[in-house]
Amino acid sequence: MKIIFWIFLFAMIHFIGCSATNTYLIKHDQMTYDMLNRKLLEERGKMILKNGAIIKSGEIHIGIDSTFWKESAEPRHIKVSLTEGSEKTSQEDILTKTIVNSEIEGFSFINRGKGCSAGAGTGFLLGAGLGTVAGLAVKKGGEEGRGSALIIPAVGAGGALFGLIIGAIIGGKDKYIFTDSTAGTQ
User: Fold this and answer.
1) Can you give the residue ranges of every domain in the chain?
2) Nearest-CA neighbor of 26 among 100, 106, 102, 103?
3) Do 71 and 63 form a contact (C-beta atoms < 8 A)?
4) pLDDT given for residue 82 in this prediction
5) Dihedral of CA 78/81/82/84: which sign?
6) DSSP assignment of 127-165, as one string?
7) Which of 18-22, 26-30, 155-159, 161-165 is the most confident on average?
8) HSE (CB half, 13 Å, CA atoms) of 96?
9) Alpha helix (H) residue ranges in the chain
10) Burial 56-89 (b: 16+ CB within 10 A, else e)
11) Residue 158 pLDDT level (bands cut at 50, 70, 90)
């Protein structure tokens, strides 16, 4: 029963440690828009509007006074005559939408690499800590030797692997929130 408790505690600490969100307060200015546009090219992000709506799009571009993104409309299917029954979505189904920058609350990004490294580091430290406790328990039992010395790195490596996987699933979150409502000013 104790082992299940320790495994559960170990997993919960990993989930908490890997789910950190870094929040950055930013201004409406061209330098910020350029930085966010570069980040949007490198990573898939979400735009958070002041009315609570969340826009997920692979193509978001922030201009000096407005932001546009591409969104799929209700898809229309066109029958292709080459093979009977096959369907193809038309390119005309993609809409470009625009919003004034002052209506944007911020942007959110998930970085899986950051989550992996945080998870592996946390896992190694927790695993090495548990391995140390287990190694000391083995030494108190009277069995000294190589076994107790190998427990620390083995459990540490296992913890790092476990943390790496959880970190990849959860990822590190970066949130950029606009602090002022004057969009388009420099």
Assistant:
1) 2-65+104-178
2) 106
3) no
4) 47
5) positive
6) HHHHHHHHHHHHHHTT--SHHHHHHHHHHHHHHHHHHHH
7) 26-30
8) 6
9) 2-18, 30-42, 112-140, 146-170
10) ebeebbbeeebbebeeeeeeeeeeeeeeeeeeee
11) confident
Q: Which amino acid is it at 148? A: S
pTM of the model: 0.60
Three-state SS at 70: strand
Q: Which tokens belong to 42?
A: 């490198």
For residue range 39-71, what is the model confidence (pLDDT) as tens digits?
888 887 899 999 999 988 778 899 988 998 887
User: What does the pLDDT read at residue 73?
Assistant: 61
- Sequence length of the chain is 186
Token pair in block for residue 41: 């090219």
User: How far is the C-alpha of 172 from the C-alpha of 41, rounded, in Å?
Assistant: 18
Q: Which residue has the higher pLDDT, 49 or 141?
A: 49
- pLDDT of residue 7 exceeding 80: no
- Whether pLDDT at 79 is above 60: no
CA torsion through residues 120, 121, 124, 125, sign: negative
